[in-house]
Write a structure and sequence with these properties.
It contains 10 helices and 14 strands. By secondary structure, the chain is of the alpha/beta class. The strands form 3 sheets. It has a 7-stranded mixed sheet with strand order 9-11-10-8-14-12-13, with helices on both faces.
Length: 288
């Protein structure tokens, strides 16, 4: 039997995970030495309250989970000899998967009848959300594990994600964005423009003067790179900026006629690096 897994860094919440049959792995963040596991330590993510704390000066940190924690998530399905598919955020952004690899190697040795496969979305937050939902749609439609893996070989790189941040102090501290000038965040009104690369990293692609120009950049990227967007969701993620996100959605609908737009709250672990008031768009593309 095929068992699906994803993690909270893909912006999935328990209700959506249950809709598709995913088991949800919680990725932690820490504030003032207190570590919180999303949807373990709370039932509902209050995005406004979380990002308001960041606006107030809080700088969260994030951390990997242990080999033992991974084993606790997967062991039941290994014992039962199931097929296991974990659709997760980018390996290139974390060392947490080193611990997972150790856990899986140990479990495979003990329970060789089980099959473990993974799909690296080569992203985090909204782009991962879009891919995890597409995989869920395929499984709902009756596709086998091998058919889903074949789909992922070409399709993962056909989801593009572009976004802008409002305050670079979060990224600057974590060093998660390559090519990003450390002083950029101090320039008043400048919005850094970032995308998820084919290698699964956040890469700076320039700046825009003012939020409106940043939104126009995202809008034009949908037109420049978009491929068969009417057959796929356009996902707009935001860090407690719902009005800006919906304004971007309206611009996309007006210019391209696309109606299937999903708005996503960026999860607190990824949001710890992005900071509040950021907005991004993910769409099916000719390439990233």
């Amino acid at each position: 039997m095929l068992k699906l897994y994803t993690d909270t860094d893909t912006d999935f919440c328990p209700s959506l995970a249950a809709e598709y049959g995913y088991k949800l792995i919680s990725m932690p963040y820490s504030i003032e030495a207190k570590t919180t596991y999303p949807y373990v330590d709370f039932e509902t993510f209050d995005a406004h309250a979380f990002y308001d704390r960041l606006r107030g000066g809080v700088l969260p940190t994030t951390s990997a989970i242990s080999k033992e924690q991974y084993m606790n998530y997967f062991i039941k399905d290994f014992i039962e000899g199931n097929e296991i598919l974990y659709v997760h955020f980018s390996r290139a952004m974390t060392n947490t998967f080193d611990a997972m690899d150790q856990a899986i190697a140990e479990l495979k040795e003990k329970y060789p009848k089980a099959r473990f496969e993974e799909i690296d979305t080569k992203g985090i937050t909204t782009i991962s959300y879009a891919i995890v939902r597409e995989v869920g749609d395929l499984v709902k439609a009756g596709k086998s594990l091998d058919e889903v893996l074949d789909w992922a070989k070409t399709e993962v790189d056909k989801f593009a994600m572009y976004f802008f941040a409002d305050d670079l102090k979060f990224f600057r501290r974590s060093g998660r964005v390559s090519g990003l000038a450390a002083t950029m965040g101090t320039l008043i009104g400048v919005r850094p423009l970032i995308h998820m690369s084919q290698e699964g990293k956040m890469v700076s692609v320039g700046t825009a003067k003012g939020r409106n120009n940043a939104m126009l950049y995202l809008l034009n990227k949908v037109g420049e790179l978009g491929d068969d967007i009417d057959s796929h969701r356009i996902c707009i993620g935001h860090t407690d900026a719902p009005e800006i996100a919906r304004q971007l959605g309206a611009m996309i609908t007006e210019k391209y006629g696309h109606q299937n737009i999903v708005y996503v709250d960026v999860n607190p672990t990824a949001g710890s690096h992005c900071g509040p008031n950021g907005v991004g768009v993910c769409f099916h593309a000719i390439h990233r």
